User: Fold this.
Amino acid sequence: MKETHMKKRSMIVVGVALALLAGVPVHAHHSGSTLFSETNSTLKGTVNKWVWSNPHCLLTVDVKGEDGQVVSWLVELQAPNTIYPAGYRANMFKPGDPVTVVMHPVANGRPYGRVVEVVLANGRRLGDGVRADTPAP
Amino acid sequence: MLHRMMTLTAGLLGAALLAPAEGVAQDKTPATWPSPVATRGPVAEKDKKPAPRRTINGMWSALRLGNQSGGVQLKPNNGRPENELPYTPYGLQVYRSHKPLEGKDSVDPADNNDPRTKCEPLGFPRYNHYDLGIQVFQDEHKLAMLYSFDNRWRMIWTDGRPLPKPVDGGVEVDGEFRENRWFGYSVGRWIDDYTLEVVTVGTMPEDRVWLDNTGRPISDQARITERFRRLDADTMEWSETIDDPKIYTRPWDTLKLRMTLQDPRIDLMTRYCSPVEIDNYNKSFGDAAGAP
Assistant:
């Protein structure tokens, strides 16, 4: 369950619906940090989809709320060559796999975020791949 | 043309096969497929070996330090006074027309105008300033420098040819005009047995390329000086100075980056730019995540 955002679930659904009606901007690839909050949130759910792609890999996680309704969260990771050393692979997630994701949610309150850590069903923890290999200056 | 390309390809393949595996992977272990990413960081003092003379052959990486997404290594665009650049009035005007995704003046994703997000070539020297990792093949005439980001390659001529003369819209060589190029025209010389100095002119103009991910500009009047200094068998220092009087009032240093020689057997996982994948990413994530 999404621990800090479930109460906003209805608002999120309404927000997404409004965005779809209004149309959304294009050409929005980014690498900046201003999109995301600095606060960790945790998702517990099952994998819906895993996209191994540039410029960012994407994991869709279905999270069931207390009311039984499922919200699909889409979280991004860095590019394949950045996250590979952290242990990520192109074939490592399959639909239905249980997964826990620690992430920084986007600031606009929608069900999107940037991965800080992924915990697999067997307890294996994978980081974001960004800081792990940084050598001393 | 086809013949020239075949000759060049054969040359590169030949260099790849003949180039000595320096510093690492000299063992007799069975041939295999190592991890497809650079993972080797700085070598310990006790493991350092003397540098070979007049070669920078091999695969080089600074790992994440090569990323520089917040601006060039020595001057990240973070608003600190020491990192402000000496813009000319025109240079500042060009900078303000850029809408970057990163740095202190970054904009919302939907508003950016970074050529990178359309998969345009980064141009030179921006290839040195984003996700930097290279493979070098060297012969008696030149170095072929293969950039891992987007699988791009560059030639540096070390056969003594003169540096072309920058002219309006391009360069002049042997009395003949040649157009500006994404990597410009690069000439290198060994200033000692361990230091290769490379000067580049004739790069693309400021309406086609940026200097870094934070929208700093560079023009086709730039003269870029790089030094590749071999510190030991496994370490190379890559420095770079920009002299662009159209954009900056004085020369300034962008890089002093220590690269580590990687396992020569790596079949690198490249970070290419695919318009289709960028479009898919924007539709599924970027647009909604970045919306107000």
About this structure: Chain B touches chain A through 44 residues (CB under 8 Å).
